[in-house]
Amino acid sequence: MLSTGPQLRLLPLLLFCVTLVLLFQVTYAKRDLKSACVTCQQITDNFNKGFDRTAKQGFGGGNTAWEERKLSKYETSEIRLMEIVEGLCDSSSFECNRMLEEHEDLFETWWFKRKTKHPDLHKWFCIETIKVCCPKGTFGPDCNACVGGSDRPCHGNGMCDGDGTRGGDGKCSCDHGYEGESCLDCIDGYFSEVRNDTFSLCTGCHESCKTCSGATNQDCDECKEGWEEDDQEACVDVNECSKDPPPCEEDQYCLNTDGSYSCKACSKVCAGCTGAGPDNCQACASGYQDTEGTCTDIDECSQPEPVCSEEHQECINNKGSYVCICSKGYEEEDGKCVETPQSEKDEESEESEATAGQHGEL
Ligand SMILES: *[C@@H]1O[C@H](CO)[C@@H](O)[C@H](O)[C@H]1NC(C)=O
Questions:
Q1: What mean pLDDT, rounded, does the chain reach?
Q2: Is the C-beta atom of 199 inside 6 A of ligand 1?
Q3: CATH number of the domain at 304-341+350-358, please?
């Protein structure tokens, strides 16, 4: 009695594992049926290619009557069959080689006994004999017709799940623009141009419509975001850039587009702008001045009042600003430029040249 305790407690876990394995096998087998058909299709495609490739081949060359007889013998020979079968699978394709091994004798049966009556190898082998495929427009273990019928699965507007295989559930995945179980309905943004019980043509609305009943911007039922109805009941672009307050930051300009807008960075030389480049500034950034409508750099170093006022200082202009550095042979010490000590001069000359203060503040 004591020993049954732990075993009983393990039972649910065991059941769970068994269920998991079964579930896995069921889902795997379902997917397997589709891929088995794909493999079979590849095999029969390669068979037909091999058949064509060996059509002009004999046992050897020549065209004497004796060779001719040999050739006609080759056409239906076991040797030709073997040559074709050799090229059916890539050596790396496990599924293909497994299927081929399992059914190798069937190729011989077909080659010698069925070929004349059943010339379509795919139909005879994949669909009727090993039953991994179905005729086009049908699916599942019993090859039932797809939604919409086998001639036009999903009414020509989608793909039937498992179409042509023994797998799948026959449900439609509709092409873009269509929806519904049988792909006859139009999605939002599309309108029905033609429709009856078996046929449907959905066409895209004008870009300004969310939903519509026709192709122009006057046929909208509802405007898309970024568009609004004008006094003729047509959807037209909203100019977001003329809104108050403006939608962009101060160092950006606004670009209106159909149904939307974007904010772009102003040129660095601007303080606010109406467009791209240095000639669309509302004002110039500090360090820049307006020269005939374009913001250009101010050369602080060539102003009448010197900006680098310490002794032995040089002014160097750069974009939007300037720097004061100590002249050659001098280095910065406590805000002044002092002569570089003789002994260190050579080693540190580069360093002292680089010593610089922004905006003249040493
Ligand atoms: C449905 O419309 C299509 C295309 O216009 C047409 O070919 C078909 O015969 C129509 N079917 C019916 C049942 O009216």
A1: 87
A2: yes
A3: 2.10.25
